[in-house]
TrEMBL record:
Entry GO MF terms: small GTPase binding
Example GO BP: protein import into nucleus
Entry similarity comment: Belongs to the importin beta family. Importin beta-1 subfamily.
Localisation per UniProt entry: Cytoplasm; Nucleus
Key words of the record: Cytoplasm, Nucleus, Protein transport, Repeat, Transport
Naturally occurring in which organism (per UniProt): Punica granatum
Entry superkingdom: Eukaryota
Name assigned to this protein: Importin N-terminal domain-containing protein
Domain Importin N-terminal: 23-103
PROSITE patterns cross-referenced by the UniProt entry: IMPORTIN_B_NT (PS50166)
Any one Gene Ontology cellular component term annotated for this protein: cytoplasm
Matching InterPro entries: ARM-like (IPR011989), ARM-type_fold (IPR016024), IMB1_TNPO1-like_TPR (IPR058584), Importin-beta_N (IPR001494), Importin_beta (IPR040122), TPR_IPO4/5 (IPR057672)
Length: 864
């Protein structure tokens, strides 16, 4: 059944493009025509020590990519294909993969380890391949096995543990895996390569070890081995051991008390004297402890009392020694770290951890950090000034405004003066610190605002990496005036700020587009938070400026793919600015005409932008069109003949599902703008929406929005929705059944369930209201199922608040639209009485108002 494919695999890597393309086509044809034989042939290639390493490597990569993909829909398809292969063929493939672990070629067994884990991720949860763990452990226990096989086996065990859930293995299997892994870490028995693989495998297996950690003797042994390994001679092994400690801190925080003294000494020694990669993990250990304690504090409440998870206050107890250790790391900057935001070194890690410590202990950190700031802020060595500023910026979240505000007010002038420091690192960190000040504290007043704006607008002309952080500072400065009566304070500076930001966006000295994107995002925030009554003229003047810039992007010369990407990024940013301007000016009747007069030109620009094949551009243009539909109302109809084809393209864009999701939202915007004038386009739209719901290829996150969209369409076209009822309602009922089966222990799935429930109720509400005055009887056959679904949701006491609001609203709509026809239904179910009582006691005024209305609607039905 297997085929000789060595030459094809080698040709697929040839320098000659023609040879390469032909070989790739042959592989693709083989895969499509006979997948089992294709996978078996690849497995033979990978397992054969006589084959060239180049063909074996590619065989392994193709095998892995035939079992797994990043895209969920694609991955699901690959899993189904594997499941459908004959058992005898799969057994041969798995046997070959296990045999490859004994190969002398590192690349071959390393790839095979990954492929085995991918197969395990499909089969072990289904209780298939039960012999895998035993076969791997056999490699570890048989005498005289080569070190490379043990290394390969441990690596495989690590990957398998990473791929499957801890619920997929029986406890005795977990015990044997842990025993093999911990023994593999033994210094006396194994080579450094085997010990490294074992330590990494332990890191992945720790999530399986709950029972073992609950047993004091086993826990002590595991901790002893990990701590000893953290002092190994080899830096790579030490690093892997500290990674284990990071994982243990996260998984078994409540069991760490007896080991904390030892762990502090280990981490402290590593931070002060070990290689950077090891020291970074030692700091990460304390960051993980902070994460656990912050989470415990978030969940702490008077009702929890003694029964809550134990809070050991490790950070508070270690504060006096931990903070000085972290402050020392801030002085270990690299000379060019301000040029690259992706740099992760000791000082960055130390500052991040310091920020987490501040969030954990609050005010208690300030007496330990402020002396360091005061001591170093004026020193001639830039390292000291930068570290002082970084320390100050790092501790702004956590302590109370009562403690921080006097410190910041006293130091604001000095911080502003540091924006003129001779050293770029100091200016860069100061700009970041100022943005944190404006984000977290309310310290801007009429007395200091002018000074702040002048400094920021001067500093925005600094080097591009500093200017980007200054944009952040302006962003948060503007945000501080949102929903504030004092927003007029910013109005006198609005023109200068927008001009400065536009000039920044046009700069050519930045190698990437990050600065430009930051400048436009900041313009968005400045416009959004401005006082419209005082700044409408400035915003109206900005509109044609941005339109002109967007027009210019359409005329750019595209010579290479890089140019296409830059064009796309710029168009996306400009569409984003137009969206914000349109929304701002549409928010009052006085300023809306300013948008309407440019609407034809704006829409023409958006339609031209769709020719650019970038999903980011399509997302931003769609969102802006949604805003334009709201601004123009019924006038938007004239754009529909041309725009509807892009609407349909968006609804069919499964691959870039965010585009599809946003397009669904825009359909809702257009329905609200056009009302029943949307009718001529509804058949095409509904057909695509129904196909989207039925598709396994579309990302599930889009589907709730589609149900909500049914409600929008029904509200817009009223009784004309009748022809879609027998297609849409069964799908809504099917989705309701899915909601009933969601595993409550899966947080991510539960969150998706809340979105789905809310959207199903929104769909029902829209349809019920649409039919209310004319054809409400069409909904009678679905009323009982809807009420059962409402009861299911009401019984979930952990439900999301937005779900509660949608539930109480749809209950009222059901009673309102169907009237006395629902009397028997409501009489036979009493759950709604307690549910409405719960809603009426809420602090949320909107919820109380809706519940009162619903109570009235049901009351009217019951006396009818």
């Amino acid at each position: 059944m297997a085929m000789e494919i060595t030459q094809i695999l080698l040709s697929a890597q040839a320098l000659d493009a023609r040879v390469r393309t032909e070989a790739e086509a042959s592989l693709r044809q083989f895969q499509e025509q006979n997948l089992p034989a294709f996978l078996l042939s690849l497995s033979f290639e990978l397992a054969n020590n006589d084959k060239p390493i180049e063909s074996r490597r590619l065989a392994g990569i193709i095998l892995k990519n035939s079992l797994d993909a990043k895209d969920a829909a694609r991955k699901n398809l690959l899993v189904q294909q594997w499941v459908g292969i004959e058992i005898s063929v799969k057994s041969q493939i798995k046997e070959l993969l296990l045999r490859t672990l004994g190969s002398s070629a590192h690349e071959a067994w390393h790839t095979s380890a990954q492929v085995i884990a991918k197969v395990a991720s499909i089969e072990i949860p289904q209780k298939q391949w039960p012999e895998l763990i035993g076969a791997l452990l056999n490699n570890m226990t048989q005498r005289d096995q080569p070190a490379s096989l043990k290394q390969a086996t441990l690596e495989t065990l690590g990957y398998v543990c990473e791929e499957i859930s801890h619920q997929d293995l029986a406890q005795d299997e977990v015990n044997t895996v842990l025993t093999a892994v911990v023994q593999g870490m033994n210094l006396a028995e194994h080579s450094p390569e085997v010990r490294l693989a074992a330590t990494r495998a332990l890191c992945n297996a720790l999530a399986f070890a709950q029972t073992n950690f609950d047993n004091e003797m086993e826990r002590n042994y595991i901790m002893k081995v990990v701590c000893e390994t953290a002092m190994s001679k080899e830096a790579e092994i030490r690093q892997a051991a500290f990674e284990c400690l990071v994982s243990i801190a996260s998984l078994y925080y409540e069991l760490l008390e007896p080991y904390m003294q030892t762990l502090f000494e280990l981490t402290s020694n590593a931070v002060k004297g070990d290689e950077e990669a090891v020291a970074l993990q030692a700091i990460e250990f304390w960051s993980s402890i902070c994460d656990e304690e912050i989470e415990l504090q978030d969940y702490e409440s008077p009702e929890v009392g003694e029964s809550g998870a134990p809070h050991s206050c490790f950070i508070e107890k270690a504060l006096s020694v931990l903070v000085p250790m972290l402050l020392e790391t801030l002085l270990k900057q690299e000379e060019d770290q301000d040029q690259d935001d992706t740099v992760w070194n000791l000082s960055m890690a130390g500052g991040t951890c310091l920020g987490l410590v501040a969030r954990t202990v609050g005010d208690a950190i300030l007496p330990l950090v402020m002396p360091f700031v005061e001591e170093n802020i004026k020193k001639p060595d830039w390292h000291c000034r930068e570290a002082a500023t970084y320390a100050f910026g790092s501790v702004l979240e956590g302590p109370t405004a009562e403690k921080l505000s006097p410190l910041v007010n006293a130091g604001l002038d000095f911080l502003l003066s540091l924006m003129k420091d001779e050293n770029s690192h100091v200016r860069d960190t100061t700009a970041w610190t100022l943005s944190r000040v404006f984000e977290l504290l309310d310290i801007i007043s009429s007395e200091n605002l002018q000074k702040v704006v002048i400094v920021l607008l001067e500093s925005i002309r600094d080097a591009s990496h500093i200017a980007e952080k200054v944009c952040g500072a302006i962003y948060f400065l503007a945000q501080g005036f949102e929903d504030s009566e004092s927003s007029s304070l910013l109005s006198p500076y609005l023109m200068d700020m927008i001009t400065g930001l536009l000039n920044t966006a046009d700069r050519t000295d930045s190698s990437d587009s990050k600065l430009r994107s930051s400048a436009y995002e900041t313009i968005n925030e400045v416009v959004r938070c401005s006082n419209l009554a005082e700044s409408s003229q400035i915003i109206v003047q900005l509109l044609p400026v941005i339109m002109n810039k967007l027009q210019q992007t359409l005329e750019l010369q595209i010579m290479k793919s890089d140019d296409r990407e830059k064009q796309g990024d710029l168009q996306a940013s400009l569409c984003g600015v137009l969206q914000v301007i349109i929304q701002k000016l549409s928010s009052t009747d006085e300023t809306r005409p300013a948008v309407v007069q440019f609407a034809d030109q704006i829409m023409a620009l958006f339609l031209s932008v769709f020719a650019c094949h970038s999903s980011t551009v399509h997302e931003e243009a769609m969102l802006a069109i949604g805003a334009l539909a709201y601004a123009t109302g019924a006038e938007f109809l004239k754009y529909m003949p041309e725009f509807s084809k892009y609407l349909q393209m968006g609804l069919q864009n499964f691959e870039e599902y965010q585009v599809c999701s946003i397009t669904v939202g825009v359909v809702g915007d257009i329905c609200r703008a056009l009302d029943d004038k949307i009718l001529p386009f509804c058949d095409g739209i509904m057909e695509l929406l129904l196909k989207d719901l039925q598709s396994d290829m579309l990302h599930q996150s889009v589907k709730p929005a589609i149900f909500s969209c049914f409600g929008d369409i029904a509200l817009a076209i009223g009784e004309q929705f009748e022809k879609y009822v027998h297609h849409a309602l069964p799908m809504m009922q099917q989705a309701a059944e899915i909601c009933a089966q969601i595993d409550p222990s899966d947080e991510e799935l539960m969150e998706y369930g809340y979105q789905l429930k809310r959207s199903i109720f929104e769909a029902y509400s829209g349809i019920l209201q649409g039919f209310k005055d004319t054809k409400s009887e069409l909904m009678l056959p679905y009323a009982s199922h809807l009420l059962q679904f409402i009861e299911l949701v009401c019984n979930d006491k952990q439900r999301d608040e937005s779900v509660t609001k949608a539930t109480v609203a749809v209950m009222g709509d059901l009673a309102d639209a169907l009237g006395s026809n629902t009397k028997l239904l409501f009489r036979d179910c009493v759950f709604y009485i307690d549910f409405l009582g719960e809603c009426l006691q809420s602090d949320d005024e909107q919820l109380k108002e809706t519940a009162t209305w619903t109570q009235g609607m049901i009351g009217r039905v019951m006396v009818s």
